[in-house]
Amino acid sequence: FAQLVGRAEGCDEEQRLALLDEALGLWRGEPLVDLDGVEVDGYRAELSRLQLAVEVQARQIDVRNGRSRKALPRLERAFREQPGDTTITGLYLCALHATGQRGYLASAYDQHEESLGGDYVDGRLKSLYTSIRRGASDLSPHAEFFLGGPPAPESRSPGEDAGEHLDPAPESAPESAPEAAPGHRWNAQNVNYIHSQLTTGTVVFGTNLGG
After folding, report:
1. Following DSSP, what letter does each residue of 4-35 receive, concatenated?
2. Is 87 in contact with 166 (CB distance < 8 Å)?
3. What's the DSSP call for residue 164?
4. How many CB atoms lie within 10 A of CB 21?
5. Whole-angstrom distance, CA of residue 115 vs CA of residue 113
6. pLDDT digits (tens, 9 = 90+) for 51-70
7. In Å, what is the CA distance from 138 to each residue of 103, 144, 153, 180?
8. pTM reported for the whole predicted model
9. Nearest CA-CA partner of 31 in 198, 201, 178
10. Among residues 54, 67, 73, 104, which is most buried (max CB within 10 A)?
């Protein structure tokens, strides 16, 4: 899994997406399910965050390039798992808007706000949501953070699968790990760090880890 994600760095978008999706295809259920203990729990949580970060990176590429309909089911699942994640929520809103499913926008935004438990909604997400509600013809100024970059030129207009976007990663990196870039954008350095911690330590991977 980590090797494929590491190889994806530096590739062009389509090659990168293919490698990320190949890595995600190796994932089988909860990692290290046959082991327990505080240290194992920490590894398991970190692997799950890494898997979610890779999922978001892959779906950002899809939405940036006008493939929101393909990305939407997996974004829905990610949003259900992490409704309080700003990046995931923004990317999900972009995909809903791009596929014309605007009836779900308000409920998704409200769910995100409720999940914060009184904390303020990130200003970038507020701006994106306001632009969508106002029917802006071009969301790219507000969507780029969530898409992980600017949308492809042919994906800038709203409507059926006209891409709007986002950028993601785990809720928090391990204390000694390299810092993730703003927006939780994980790169090969972060992935390789986690991979080295998992493969050089005393913990053995469970058989259902997937890679």
Report:
1. HHHHHTTS-HHHHHHHHHHHHHT--SSTTTT-
2. yes
3. -
4. 17
5. 5
6. 899 999 999 999 999 999 99
7. 19, 11, 11, 29
8. 0.71
9. 198
10. 54
